[in-house]
Amino acid sequence: MAQYFRNIYETIATVLIGMGVTFRHLFTKSVTLQYPREQRELPSGTRQKLFVNIDDCIGCLQCEKACPVSCITIETIKAEKDEDLGETSNGKKKRMYLTRFDIDMAKCCYCADCVFPCPTECIYMVPEFDFATYDRNDLVFRFSNLSDEKHKELIEREKAKEAAKQQPPEAN
Predict the structure, then answer these.
(1) What local confidence, expressed as pLDDT, does residue 43 receive?
(2) What pLDDT is stored for residue 105 in this prediction?
(3) Phi, psi (degrees; rounded to nearest 5) at 75
(4) What confidence tens digit (pLDDT) does each residue in 53-92 have?
């Protein structure tokens, strides 16, 4: 019989304690943000989405080599000696065409290891975190700014160079 009344007492006490917590929080200010209309300010140093300022990239492949999960894919074609590709914002001469600079954010582990070895500081994290999508292919960000015509021209030039190397020298 004593166990019966102890169970009733514990049940009532538990309900009252829970209701007490509920009533205490009933009159406090809400901390809920109405996302996406309201967004919390991100702390400094947060690691979010990678961005590449392609005009400053020299095609050194340091970021691709530093990436532990191989989410960065870079393809370059060396410029001819007489071609001037310009300079980066910090004065480094550009010697490569960037035919491909892709970052697959589905693979990225947000470690920022690719940011630090970049000599021109063209790759960095931006405070953008809401880029959800239904298709993984939409998480591959392409940064190369070569036109299709220029890309085809460079590929043909490279094929012609390879073909010239493959041909044996002509004997007179």
Answers:
(1) 81
(2) 92
(3) -125, 135
(4) 998 888 899 999 999 999 999 998 888 888 888 888 888 8
37: Cβ–Cβ under 8 A, 6 or more apart, which residues? none
Decide: helix, strand or coil at residue 39.
Answer: coil
Alpha-carbon Rg for the chain in angstroms: 29
Regarding pTM above 0.85, the answer is: no
Whether a cis peptide bond, with omega within 30° of 0, leads into 68 is no
Over residues 137-160, mean pLDDT? 85
Contact by Cβ (8 Å): 45, 125: no
Contact 117, 66 (CB under 8 A): yes
Sign of CA dihedral 127, 60, 160, 162: negative
Choose among 55, 49, 141: nearest CA to 102. 141
Torsion angle of C-alpha atoms 53, 59, 65, 66, degrees rounded to 10: -30
Give CA–CA dist 115/122, Å, rounded.
8
CB-based contacts of 152, cutoff 8 Å, min separation 6:
none
Could you give all domains of the chain from N- to C-terminal order, each with its CATH number?
49-147 (3.30.70.3270)
Residue 43: DSSP 8-state: P
Residue 126 has pLDDT above 70, yes or no: yes
